[in-house]
UniProtKB/TrEMBL annotation:
Residues 3-189 form the Dienelactone hydrolase domain. InterPro entries: AB_hydrolase_fold (IPR029058), Dienelactn_hydro (IPR002925), Dienelactone_hydrolase-like (IPR051049). Its EC number is 3.1.-.-. This is Dienelactone hydrolase family protein. GO terms for molecular function: hydrolase activity. It comes from the Bacteria. Pfam families: DLH. Keywords: Hydrolase. PANTHER family: ALPHA_BETA-HYDROLASES SUPERFAMILY PROTEIN (PTHR46623:SF6), CARBOXYMETHYLENEBUTENOLIDASE-RELATED (PTHR46623).
Length: 190
């Protein structure tokens, strides 16, 4: 059994994020889903983004993991994936990272530093998603793999963002089933 922290996306802790966490729990894992928005959810990415600008999401995320053991897998969707990556790269003891529809570079201005040895990562996203595939995240994911890190990139056909959230109209059940299968395989090996 692995302990996972799953950070929600910019729309908040939606029922679809909770359902994704439950699917990982059904695989025998403990999954924490911190609510950085204190119950607020949003219908559009722009609304969620505007709300998030008034928050110190780093401080909220730090508080959310403060009492958890060090040996966890950090996972996150889009905006939440940034927090997951930050912890996987900077919090000692990380067991892995699952970055859904996001990946920051491991060098340069937006980097959290080098990828730590022994921390496996999975990066998942759609191959034509405007935010993931066309704004540099996919390039960053490929850079991570090319660095020699224990990292895998999984691409799914499509052009939508937040495809794994069953409470949203863009939900892709087939892609999400495969995503869950792959994430459970990682959690079973760490």
């Amino acid at each position: 059994m692995t302990t996972v922290v799953l950070f929600h996306h910019v729309l908040g802790l939606t029922p679809g994020v909770a359902e994704l966490a439950e699917r990982l729990r059904e695989g025998g894992h403990t999954v924490h889903t911190p609510d950085l928005y204190a119950g607020h959810t949003f219908a559009t990415i722009l609304e969620g983004f505007e709300f998030s600008k008034a928050l110190d999401t780093d401080a909220l995320s730090d508080a959310a993991v403060a009492d958890l053991p060090a040996h966890v897998v950090y996972a996150g969707i889009s905006m939440g994936g940034g927090q997951a990556q930050r912890f996987a790269q900077t919090r000692p003891g990380a067991r892995g990272a699952v970055l859904l529809e996001t990946c920051f570079p491991i060098t340069g201005e937006w980097s959290f530093g080098p990828w730590p040895d022994g921390v496996p990562a999975q990066i998942h996203g759609m191959d034509d998603d405007e935010f993931f595939a066309h704004e540099g995240d996919l390039d960053s994911a490929r850079e991570l793999v090319a660095s020699g890190a224990d990292a895998e990139v999984f691409l799914y056909p499509g052009d939508v963002h937040l495809f794994e959230d069953s409470s949203l109209p863009q939900y892709d059940a087939k892609a999400t089933d495969l995503l869950v299968e792959r994430v459970l395989a990682l959690l079973d090996r760490v």
